[in-house]
Amino acid sequence: DQQVKQNSPSLSVQEGRISILNCDYTNSMFDYFLWYKKYPAEGPTFLISISSIKDKNEDGRFTVFLNKSAKHLSLHIVPSQPGDSAVYFCAASARGGADGLTFGKGTHLIIQP
Amino acid sequence: DAGVIQSPRHEVTEMGQEVTLRCKPISGHDYLFWYRQTMMRGLELLIYFNNNVPIDDSGMPEDRFSAKMPNASFSTLKIQPSEPRDSAVYFCASTWGRIATNEKLFFGSGTQLSVL
């Protein structure tokens, strides 16, 4: 039972355009969401997060949007660069919970020149 | 800081053999997690420790899996006996403070396990 779902296994975007990665969750107790980026042969690294009290968080080229009513979040990358090619994991936690993060299966983003 | 260090990077073994994966967390971190990554299930939490004590091992798939943390700077994940379906990338991660207030995890580079 996947509580965090990333329904697109892969996404191809042209360099310079916007990349939009989507994530849905089912557990209404989740109130903190994170995106991790993973390059081949490396561990995931933290990218950006958002608390449920916000609907948007921005960090440079990366913006995460949260729609609590739809239980949906998205990561926007503008403009997309070749170095953004990686697997992106959506993760969620319930504050007060002590069971670590629940991850999605990941989306492989490919930036084409 | 060297980050979370895992060894070996790659492990190839035959079915039935014992496999031991090792992890050194970042100094000062009091939480340590073991995750497994597969194509089918993505990143799954296997077990986590707080101050060297196992807190939740409900993600450990079977009794063939065991994990220990004898001190703050070392943890092992052991599979005995190993089976082909255990083939995956195993990640160790660490963090500090209460999980409720700091959800950011620092991952090692992983161990690619292949059981033939």
pLDDT below 50 for ≥5 consecutive residues: which ranges of chain A? none
Largest sheet of chain A: 6 strands, mixed
Shape of chain A: globular
Quick one: biggest sheet of chain B? 7 strands, mixed
Distance between the termini of chain A: 37 Å
* CA(first)-CA(last) distance of chain B: 36 Å
Which two chains form the greatest contact, residue counts included? A-B, 26 and 27 residues
The low-confidence parts of chain B are none
Instruction: Work out the helicity level of chain A.
Output: under 10%
What oligomerization state is this entry in? heterodimer
Average pLDDT of chain A, to the nearest integer?
A: 93
Give the tally of β-strands of chain B. 11
The percentage helix of chain B is under 10%
Supply Rg of chain B: 13 Å
Relative strand content of chain A: over 45%
How does this model look, in words?
The complex is a heterodimer of chains A (113) and B (116). In chain A, 0% of the residues lie in helices and 53% in strands. Chain A has no helices and 11 strands. In chain A, strand 6 (56-59) and strand 7 (62-67) form a beta hairpin. The radius of gyration of chain A is 13 Å and the shape is globular. Chain B has 116 residues and is an all-beta fold. Chain B has strands at residues 5-7, 10-13, 19-24, 31-38, 42-50, 53-56, 65-71, 74-79, 88-95, 106-107, 111-115. In chain B, the strands form 2 sheets. In chain B, strands 2, 4, 5, 6, 9, 10 and 11 form a 7-stranded mixed β-sheet that branches. Chain B has a 4-stranded antiparallel β-sheet with strand order 1-3-8-7, with no helix packed on it. In chain B, strand 5 (42-50) and strand 6 form a beta hairpin. The interface between A and B is medium-sized, with 26 and 27 residues.
